[in-house]
Amino acid sequence: MASMDLKSQIIGLVKLQELDSEIYALGNERATKPQEIKAIEAAFELRKRDLATLEKKSLDLQKQRKEKELELATNAEGVKKLSGQLFSLKTNKEFQIMQQQIADLKADGAVIEEKILIFFEESDKIKAQIDSENLKLKEEEKIFLQQKKAIESRSEEITDRLSQLDAQRKQIIPGMDAKRLQDYEKILHSRDGLAIVAVKDNSCGGCHMLVPPQVINLIRMYEHIITCEVCNRILYIKE
Ligand SMILES: [Zn+2]
Questions:
Q1: Separation of 213 CA from ligand 1 center, angstroms?
Q2: pLDDT, tens only, 66-86
């Protein structure tokens, strides 16, 4: 009778192990989800920063252009002022000097105008870049949100499945011997969620080390719980 009892306990543990293997795998999978979300969020944030850099560059160009426009206005005023004074001068020499000053100022003005044009051209290029980045980013945001949603719904799916598995576990546990269950769970936690393994081709299904024939005989007798000498997992024979 005692041996029959152990056999039924082992059958119970094998059933538990099926549930626990899934529970472990799902738990591990769910644990990676927050990190996955963080990774795609960080990648998307980085892309947004690229756009912000372009926008900053565009503002800088506008600022630089406005400074040049002010400079140009000051330059034009200078030309106007000197031109007004030109005919009140008394000597030819003074006249020539001032004419030269006006010509120099006008030359400076031309250089400033040239720079303003370049700023305009650069601004146009950057604005076009910003527009195309904006479009791309909108697409990327859609993909990012879809990916995030997929990860979140997988997480929820896992949570639902885990509560189903937990309910199934609770149905098996009352039929189990408390001490055996405790031993099983101890091995389960120390051996990565795998506590009871079938002997296959004379080796342990957990660590694959050879199980000697006399140990296999002991397992078949169902008098004691037999564990693998190497990995300490409970061994059983599939019938
Ligand atoms: Zn083993």
A1: 15
A2: 999 999 999 999 999 999 999
